[in-house]
TrEMBL record, chain A:
<protein>
    <submittedName>
        <fullName>ABC transporter permease</fullName>
    </submittedName>
</protein>
From TrEMBL, chain B:
<keyword id="KW-0067">ATP-binding</keyword>
<protein>
    <submittedName>
        <fullName>ABC transporter ATP-binding protein</fullName>
    </submittedName>
</protein>
<keyword id="KW-0547">Nucleotide-binding</keyword>
Length: 249, 308
């Protein structure tokens, strides 16, 4: 608890909340700009949103997670505080404080981002019934990939002691992840940065070339990839903890 | 009285390179202990091992009467203040906010923050962001953090680094007075030997990870006994007496009436002066020379020989 309180104190003037608001803001602007108008589009409104959001996530979230993770440790590097902190608290409590704080930031980002879905539905009066089950699945998948990327980027930051590699990997990861989505599904499994897309439950069922009308359909939930994402996230979390535990300062 | 710090055969190696070699250190309670050595001697590594920041490859550390281990480390370190290498501080926070984080983690009342700020003369800058501080101010903030909770033991690694001359003088006075003013024992490292003489009562000299000397400053200063300068009216006659007694004297080219004699016991010196007076050399001055700490340190480190 003291470690988490310390993280809250350290967060003063770092504007982390603004960062967490940034992503939902971009989603609202991006998806809101493509707001449906015809009755056919309104009847497909939520499906279109739940199809688009994983693509937007694949572009933005690897960078966002890199920013959140690197900022969380970078202040310790810049302030040269590790030697002091390890005499005031156990390594376990420092890492636990960081992990809880970071997880809450990621959770807040995911909640705010996905809260845009029902809000946009209401604003635009979608006629499609709100797909609760698919929405929860998307939330779980988003959170799982976010946390996996967050702890991966945190590990990179711990290794390098510099935010730049983590940010570069986040940017390159976003591009490669998006690109992999247009390659055979098997290829996309090798690019964790883009897992948002193969985990998505929505796909384009039909595109009417004459009317430019897109009809979306659902596909089976990818539980296997979701389980792998969670396991990978746990592995990266454990590796980051191991690094903090064994690092001599 | 039980020592505050004791190490037994403490060792640290990095990839086969021994940095600290079977170190047996004893820091008595209530003293300012100067830990001396050139850069790379192993001082910082030793201090980090005392704080559990670096794992020893051999030996053990006793802190405040308890063998240091992972279970009791934080409990013991809560009674300890430390400043290792460069000072720490969150650059986006003020000094007061930095100290609040340290105080909360250390379990110290926040009202102690004002006291430590006052001790290091940072009260007027307490609400400025640490990112705007000079290195000297950051160093003082580091000392303030170490002083939180009036610890029984302070471990300070070259705390005067980056301070201006006035700051150095201030820091020396603060540290030298600490055993009396707060009851704390201070272990302080430095490679600036001259500044240690003004602060410490006990000294340990480390080189290549080995302890060359440990004991009171006064004992070290006994090794400081140098030769004798003899000023006479007739240097040629004096030289003849010295030669007859088998004493090798060196004449100073710029002061032909002054002879430099090797160190000798007081009785032998008294007899020699009597002989010189009897020969008519005319003894007009006798000055006992003392080596400064730098010279002693160099003579100790040159041969790596242990000095009792």
């Amino acid at each position: 608890m003291a470690a988490f309180r310390a993280e809250l104190q350290k967060a003063r003037r770092r504007h982390d909340l603004l960062l967490c608001l940034l992503l939902p803001g971009i989603v609202v602007l991006w998806v809101g700009g493509l707001s449906p108008s015809s009755p056919e589009e309104l009847a497909n409104g939520y499906s279109a949103l739940l199809y688009s959001i994983p693509v937007i996530e694949a572009i933005l979230l690897p960078v966002m997670m890199a920013v959140l993770a690197s900022r969380l440790w970078d202040m310790e590097v810049k302030g040269n505080t590790a030697k002091l902190l390890y005499t005031l608290q156990t390594r376990r409590s420092l890492f636990a404080g960081k992990a809880v704080f970071g997880t809450l930031e990621v959770l807040l980002t995911a909640v705010l981002e996905l809260a845009c879905v029902p809000v946009l539905g209401r604003v635009h009066d979608y006629t499609e019934a709100f797909p609760k089950g698919q929405f929860v699945y998307l939330f779980v998948c988003t959170l799982a990939v976010d946390l996996m990327l967050f702890f991966g980027e945190l590990l990179l930051m711990l290794w390098c002691g510099n935010p730049l590699p983590a940010l570069c990997v986040g940017i390159v990861g976003a591009l490669v992840g998006l690109f992999s989505a247009f390659l055979p599904p098997l290829v996309s499994y090798f690019v964790p940065f883009g897992y948002y897309i193969p985990l998505s439950a929505y796909e384009v069922a039909n595109w009417d070339q004459a009317s430019h009308l897109v009809t979306y359909g659902t596909r089976a939930h990818n539980w296997g990839l979701l389980a792998f994402t969670i396991l990978l996230g746990i592995g990266l979390f454990a590796a980051a903890w191991r690094k903090v535990q064994t690092e001599e300062v | 009285m039980k020592p505050v710090i004791e190490t037994h055969g403490l060792c640290k190696s990095y990839g086969g390179r021994t940095v600290v070699d079977h170190l047996d250190l004893t820091v008595p309670q209530g003293c300012v202990y100067g830990f001396l050595g050139p850069n790379g001697a192993g001082k910082s590594t030793t201090m980090k091992m005392l704080l559990g920041l670096v794992h020893p490859t051999g030996g053990s550390v006793e802190l405040l009467g308890h063998t240091l281990n992972e279970e009791n480390r934080i409990g013991l370190l809560r009674q300890t203040g430390s400043l290792i290498e460069s000072p720490s501080g969150y650059l986006h926070l003020t000094a007061r906010e930095n100290l609040a984080i340290a105080a909360d983690l250390k379990g110290v009342e926040r009202r102690d923050i004002d006291r430590v700020l006052d001790v290091v003369h940072l009260t007027s800058a307490a609400n400025r962001k640490v990112g705007q501080y000079s290195l000297g101010m950051k160093q003082r903030l580091g000392i303030a953090t170490a002083l939180l909770g009036s610890p029984k033991l302070l471990i300070l690694d070259e705390p005067t680094n980056g301070l201006d001359p006035a700051g150095i003088q201030e820091m020396r006075s603060l540290i030298a007075a600490m055993p009396e003013s707060t009851g704390a024992t201070v272990l302080i490292s430095s490679h600036l030997l001259g500044e240690m003489e003004q602060m410490v009562s006990q000294v340990g000299i480390l080189n290549h990870g080995k302890l060359l000397f440990e004991g009171p400053l006064a004992a070290l200063q006994r090794h400081a006994r140098g030769g004798v300068l003899l000023r006479v009216l007739d240097a040629q006659r004096a030289a003849a007496v010295l030669q007859a007694q088998g004493i090798r004297a060196v004449t100073r080219p710029v002061q032909p009436d002054t002879l430099e004699l090797p160190p000798m016991p007081d009785e032998a010196l008294a007899a020699l002066v009597g002989a010189l007076a009897g020969s008519g050399a005319g003894v007009v001055g006798l000055t006992s020379q003392t080596k400064n700490l730098e010279e002693i340190f160099l003579s100790l480190t040159k041969g790596d020989g242990e000095v009792a």
